[in-house]
Amino acid sequence: MGFRDECGVVGIFCSEKKSNANDAARLAYFALTSLQHRGQESAGIAVSDGEKIKLHKSMGLVSDVFRPEHFENLRGSVALAHVRYATAGGRSLENAQPFLNTYKLGSIALCHNGQLVNYNELREMLEDYGCTFSSTSDSEVILKLIVRKFIEQGGKPGSHNELNFSDGEENRVRFENAVRETCSIIKGSFALCIMTEDMLLGVRDPNGIRPLCVGTLEDDSSFIIASESCAIDAVNGTLLRDVAPGEMVIINKEGFRSRVPEGGTVKCMQNKQTCIFEYVYFARPDSVIDGMAVQEARYRMGEQLAEEAPVAADVVVGVPDSGIGAALGYAKKSGIPFVTGIIKNKYIGRTFIAPTQKERESMVFVKLNAIKSDLNKKRVIVIDDSIVRGTTSRRLVQMLRRAGASEVHFRVSSPPVKFPCHLGIDTPSKNELISSTHELEEIKKEIGADSLAFISLEGMLNALGSGHFCKGCFNGAYPV
User: Fold this and answer.
1) Which terminus has fewer CB within 10 Å in the chain: N or C?
2) CB-based contact 94:134 (threshold 8 Å)
3) Which one-letter DSSP state was computed for residue 3?
């Protein structure tokens, strides 16, 4: 049982001049499908036709939630989309996103990737103001805060039915300010996509913990905001750039604008503390995050691992999918041939929930299988992205030995995970993390490998060429 993915967000703004002006929801669907790896519990799309926002969401994968007939009712030029893996709030439909609040004169919808650390106090404050909640998600708290701040900016207290987020320049500026003020209050990790009937916003937290990027569609008048650049590629878009930490981007019929905190973009990038596991595991290998290609980062981590932990062997194998890049790098640096070795069953739903720990461990054999002709009578180096509880690693070693491997040398392209994450990743408690309670030799024996080595934190940062990352799961030092 390893790390759980986070969430994926998408925002689409189509120019009314284009032939696909009413196809924002369809484009969001394709972009969302490319982010399925970030969440498999629920999916949703909200779309505006300029007057009203409609919403469809449900539990399940993107392909299960949406049918062709749904898009007949989801026509419009602005859309939000979300795939979810629960980090805050339960796994139920009321916590599925986007969240939508509708008033007499306006609506606002929101998608969120991340997790707030001051969720409880903010919810209590809003309840004291008279707010009610339909979910247990911290994302709904963000939405309610924006509405509250909009009212304080000059709305009519007690007249929520008259809230108007989009009509006129004064209201649009007030709405932008309400979002900015909200983002100065919430603490934790967040990449947000927010929409009204005629406007799309993207916001990244001041530390840039969660990724967010923006691109163009067809020309410079249609735009996409997404968690990863692979979603922009999926709709034949062009990546413009990443949203800077603390930046808010605003897209409407007048075009694209940016608001950055005092000190400008350079100061924002100095505060960057992106989750390092985006490069290790979460992101798709074809994505580019903060100017760094994810697959290239994994190659370099594998090369660094080969320098730090060489061992005599016949073949190198990567654990699909996120271990393959590091395995290719290890093989190149060591001169030991890379072989496929392990096949992943592409048709196993990642939402499968086995009722017992024994059954969950056995699922490794259903999801993965060894290729005996690659491994029989071979000394095998197997590269994985991490060891969390150790149960999956033990099953992998058993699988390789059953396929005839004469030796199994386990190498890990991230340092030992010793601390749980409270910034948007569903990790086990500290006493369940094997590296927190066991020494290296004990872990080696626990998983049954002939040898075991992790990349050093220093070596990992050297491979990534920077120290501007959140490394809390390795050293317990969090940016928030």
Assistant:
1) N
2) yes
3) P
CB 49 within 8 A of CB 79: no
350 has a pLDDT exceeding 50: no
Catalytic hit among 7, 14, 193, 473: 7
Nearest-angstrom CA–CA distance, 381 and 323: 12
pLDDT of residue 126: 95
Measured CA to CA, the distance from residue 38 to residue 58 in angstroms comes to 16
pLDDT-based confidence at residue 460 (cuts at 50, 70, 90) = very high
Calculated CA dihedral for residues 161, 166, 169, 171, nearest 10 degrees: 30
3-state DSSP assignment of residue 28: helix
Tokens at 323, concatenated = 């271990």
Euclidean distance between CA atoms 235 and 217, whole angstroms: 8
Tokens of 298: 């994994």
CA–CA distance, 11 with 201 (Å, rounded to integer): 8
Q: Is 213 a catalytic residue?
A: no
CB 286 within 8 A of CB 233: yes
Evaluate if residue 425 carries a pLDDT over 80.
Answer: no
- Quickly list DSSP for 139-168: HHHHHHHHHHHHHHTT--TT-GGG--SSSS
What pLDDT digit, counting tens, does each position of 278-309 carry?
999 999 999 999 999 999 999 999 999 999 99
Q: What is the mean pLDDT of the chain?
A: 90
> Are 464 and 300 contacting, i.e. CB atoms less than 8 angstroms apart?
yes
d(CA 353, CA 166): 43
Yes or no: say if 454 and 415 are a contact pair by the CB < 8 Å rule.
yes
Kindly tell me if the per-residue pLDDT of 310 is higher than 80: yes
Q: Characterise 73 by phi-psi region: left (phi > 0), alpha (psi -120 to 50), beta (else).
A: alpha
Residues with Cβ within 8 Å of 263's Cβ and at least 6 positions away in sequence, in order, are none
> What b/e sequence results for 178-187 when a residue is b if at least 16 CB atoms lie within 10 Å of its CB, and e otherwise?
bbbbbbeebe
Least confident of 269-283, 340-354, 426-440: 340-354
pLDDT of 355 above 70: no
